[in-house]
Model the fold of this input.
Amino acid sequence: MIDLNVQGTLLLEGSLSANGKPAIISGGGGGGGGSIHVRAGTFAGTGSLFANGGNGLVTGGGGGGGRIAIHCDTNAFTGTTSAAGGGGFNWGGAGSVFSEVNGQPPLIVLDNQGHSGAWSKMPVSGAYDVVVTGGAVLLQMPPAAPSQTFRSLLIGSNSFYCPPTSYYGQVFLTVTATR
Done:
């Protein structure tokens, strides 16, 4: 785990990696991505944050992507973040990139970099903006009640959102659009 707590400005021009390790034997699965937690007054730079899953070997599956969380007052970071699942006989599921900038709704992104992988389970419901893209599959875990509320939900091409149908038997989708 990488945990950075900077009261002033964190300028990232290099890379921080919490990637899972690749398998070392035939048929072995890749290691899951780790976690990176950034807290800063201002987060800036053009560097990279990686928490990708490791690759499986031959018939082994890829490790799941890890977690990246960014909490800051000002976000001037224009670099790369990636928490994708690793490759293998089956790709690992996408991890998540969570960002919370003071005064804005939190954003959660699941992006598997174009690879269909295992489901990514997430017990999220609330005033979040959620993006599911790049082949990611979000399996919504059941909350205390069968309704789900997001501030916004964007499902990209070849990506999926799976509500907790097996727990409640049916799903009602209500879409509210604003201009």
